[in-house]
Amino acid sequence: MLQKKICMLGAFSVGKSSLVTRYVESIFGDKYHTTVGVKISKKELTVEEQEVKLIIWDLAGQDDLTRLRTSYLRGTSGYILVCDGTRPFSLKVALNMHKEAREYSGDISFVLIINKFDLQSSTDWELDQEQLSALEASGIEVLYTSAKTGDGVDEVFQKLTKKMLQEHNVLENT
């Protein structure tokens, strides 16, 4: 069984911990709990007949006053950038974290997710579709999730794991 470490990156209160809890334990809690430092969870899955144990590092949120603690990225195989569709600033934070992660870890697998998609049709939704389309046109895959409903959550982890396995196979064959 392969083990792969992934990190959850994003601004404060975008739903990183809720996404991990939804994925690992299949539950959603309405109460907000600030992550201090890092919380580590594990989940086993099978992707393309390969058994994988994910070691999920849920990192504390970031804002303009804090920087990504790159030491947490040591040994990571991939990361999930999390943004909140009701808070446009969280996309800027996620993209800054992406830049920092790239500088530290190089060109490893990642996905960008827009969380709280269950609010997409409400007046709370504030992300600009043109900006998201521009990101996709630049080669960044944008996925949509709702930790509350569970929509898209399993698919994100499956997709990232598949990318990491493809990267792993490329490295193994060179």
Q: Helix amount, in percent? A: 25-40%
Annotated CATH topology:
Rossmann fold
Q: Work out the number of β strands.
A: 6
Q: What does the oligomeric state look like here?
A: single chain
Total domain modules: 1
Structural class: alpha/beta
Strand order of the largest sheet: 2-3-1-4-5-6
Under CATH at level 1, the class stands as Alpha Beta
The residue ranges in which pLDDT falls below 50 over 5 or more consecutive positions are none
H/I helix tally: 4
Average of per-residue pLDDT values: 88
% residues in beta strands = 25-35%
Model description:
The protein contains 4 helices and 6 strands. The protein has one domain (2-172): 3-Layer(aba) Sandwich (Rossmann fold). By secondary structure, the protein is of the alpha/beta class. The protein is globular and about 45 Å long. It has a 6-stranded mixed sheet with strand order 2-3-1-4-5-6. The two termini are 21 Å apart. One of its GO terms (molecular function) is GTPase activity. This is GTP-binding protein. It holds the Pfam family Ras. Keywords: Nucleotide-binding.
Structure at a glance:
The protein has 174 residues and is an alpha/beta fold.
Task: Provide key terms for this protein.
174 residues, alpha/beta, Rossmann fold, six-stranded mixed β-sheet, 4 helices, globular
Please describe the topology of this protein.
Layout: E1 2-10, H1 16-25, E2 38-47, E3 50-59, E4 78-84, H2 89-105, E5 109-115, H3 129-137, E6 142-144, H4 153-172
Parallel strand pairs: 1-3, 1-4, 4-5, 5-6
Antiparallel strand pairs: 2-3
InterPro entries: P-loop_NTPase (IPR027417), Small_GTP-bd (IPR005225), Small_GTPase (IPR001806)
Keywords: Nucleotide-binding
GO molecular function: GTP binding; GTPase activity
